[in-house]
Design brief:
Elements lengths: L17 E3 H4 L5 E3 L4 E3 L7 H5 E2 L9 E3 L4 E2 L4 E3 L37 E3 L4 E2 L4 E2 L4 E2 L4 E2 L4 E2 L7 E4 L4 E5 L3 H10 L6 H6 L1 H4 L4 H5 L3
Parallel strand pairs: 2-5, 3-6, 4-7, 5-8, 6-9, 7-10, 8-11, 9-12, 10-13, 12-14
Antiparallel strand pairs: 1-3, 14-15
Length: 210
């Protein structure tokens, strides 16, 4: 059976709580890879409004989501617009109100941490929070309600507040091979032919996939 079209709005028959993000996200500063989805019983079409927070066009930071990312209900991607000025005595955003002498909040980038990047084949648990500028590596798992404040290595499992790496899913040697194989970059037909190898824990089978 082939993979569903990544532009399918509701790819699970009889269930409208899951949507492929490419079918519902239309934002110039959000990039989404094929087959990444958001699941929300309240309606996944509200992903940007409910999950991508403080994402202001004038700041210009991007949310980049790879292929085959699974995002549970209520996950929060906090962008750089949430940051307040920290270089002076007060963190109050006087510039938002146009007050004389305050930094211009539309041009001040001193607190920006850059783009947020979510790798491929990442699983993000319910109500997890990812903070500005964080990169989540390929194959990582972000636990329910984890507060992710720093970069996550590939194939790491992160839990808690603040989020910490509790373990790696596989040995460093296997992780290196998985990153080299990068099955998520294969064509749809090749992925469909090799689902059993991709979902196994047999690196030899994945390496031999054609």
């Amino acid at each position: 059976m082939p993979l569903p079209d990544p532009l399918t709005r509701h790819p699970i028959p009889g269930w409208k709580g899951t949507a492929f993000l490419r079918a519902i996200v239309d934002h110039p500063l959000i990039e989404v890879g094929d087959w990444s989805y958001y699941d929300d019983s309240r309606g996944p079409e509200h992903f940007v409004a409910r999950c991508v927070r403080y994402h202001f066009d004038f700041i210009g930071d991007r949310l980049i989501i790879g292929r085959f990312v699974a995002i549970a209900q209520g996950a929060q991607f906090v962008m750089n617009g949430a940051n307040h000025p920290m270089g002076g005595f007060s963190t109050y955003p006087f510039g938002m109100f146009g007050l004389d002498g305050a930094p211009d909040y539309r041009t001040d980038r001193s607190g920006s941490r850059g783009d947020m990047r979510i790798g491929n084949d990442v699983w993000i648990g319910r109500e997890a929070v990812i903070m500005p500028g964080v990169t989540v590596g390929d194959g990582a798992i972000i636990g329910t309600r984890a507060q992710v404040v720093k970069n996550v290595p590939p194939y790491a499992i992160v839990a808690g507040n603040p989020g910490r790496v509790v373990k790696l899913r596989f040995s460093p040697e296997v992780v290196a091979e998985l990153l080299a194989v990068a099955w998520w970059n294969w064509g749809a037909d090749r992925i469909s032919r090799n689902i059993a190898a991709i979902t196994s824990a047999d690196i030899d089978a994945l390496r031999a996939a054609v």
